[in-house]
Amino acid sequence: NHSNAYLALLEGLLTDLSGVAFKNVSILPLSFQEDLEPPSLIAFDLDMDAARLTLYFDETVLAQSVRFDQFTLQSAEQIRNHTESYHTFVSGEVSHVDSHVIIVNISISDIDQIKPTLLASSRSTTFLSLLSSAVQDMNGNFIQGISNASALNVSLFYDDLSKPVLNNFAIDLNKGEIKFVFSETVDSSSFNPTKIFVQRAKNTSSIDTLYNLRRGTVKDLDSTNITFFIDKMDLDALKSLASIAV
Predict the structure, then answer these.
(1) C-alpha to C-alpha distances, 116 to 89, 94, 111, 189, 228, nearest whole angstrom
(2) CB contact at 8 A, 77 and 86
(3) pLDDT at 1 over 70
(4) C-beta separation of 222 from 116 below 8 A
């Protein structure tokens, strides 16, 4: 404000026409116009592999003011009907440094909800809208909102290239099912049971201590949790092999 906007000018700044040097001075302005302009989001990058959103603003913004639940990812510039996919973020870890560049590490739960949809599968399906309450600049001005009817297209897009990892599994021979828990959402339609071997030890090559599943069904739901129902022929074979899965 006016009371704390002193201007300090030091000797050597300039001279008069006689060559006399400028005298040091510290003085308040005659008038002062504070920053009332709202900040704007000018670009963003999305890395689906690292689950990272990078936001670029036209001025320094207050990192702690970022409300990630006010940002919406959408598959098209306009959301006009139910053919466009969109997801409003729930949570994320926001960088703590005030800057014109803010990095958000997207939560696993948000990523798992985005991946099964048409969202963020390429640059042409990655747009961002936000409410005016999403961010504030250093003077407390709220950001210029971006409507879901004219969302901002991603600048740099990095696809998900990491292989899913099996975190754990459980076998129930009474129900004839195997439950798998993966590190990320997987495509249930790609599930191939012939790639599954049930074996007695971690490493084995003996036909007496392993069994290769042949068929079965899986719940038609893309998720981190996949339930596979073992075919009756395979289930009977597993039960008859006393050294496996007992």
Answers:
(1) 15, 24, 9, 12, 19
(2) no
(3) no
(4) yes
Q: Which two tokens stand for residue 242?
A: 């006393």
Contact 244, 209 (CB under 8 A): yes
pLDDT digits (tens, 9 = 90+) for 204-225: 666 667 889 999 999 867 888 8
Beta strands in the chain (DSSP E): 7-9, 25-27, 41-47, 52-61, 71-74, 86-88, 92-94, 99-106, 127-130, 152-153, 156-158, 166-172, 177-186, 197-199, 210-212, 216-218, 223-230
> Which candidate, 59, 240, 235, 50, places its Cα nearest to that of 137?
59
Q: Give strand pairing partners of 159.
A: none
Query: Residue 59's Cα: distance from chain center in Å?
Result: 23
67 near 142, Cβ under 8 Å?
no
**Contact by Cβ (8 Å): 92, 67:** no
d(CA 126, CA 153) in angstroms, rounded, equals 6
Strand, helix or coil for residue 13: coil
Place of tokens 């704390």: 4
3-state secondary structure of 69: helix
* CA–CA separation, 97 and 99 (whole Å): 6
Note the pLDDT tens digit of each residue in 145-183. Answer: 999 999 999 999 999 888 889 999 999 989 999 999 998
Contact 94, 63 (CB under 8 A): yes
Whether the predicted model's global pTM rises above the 0.85 cut: no
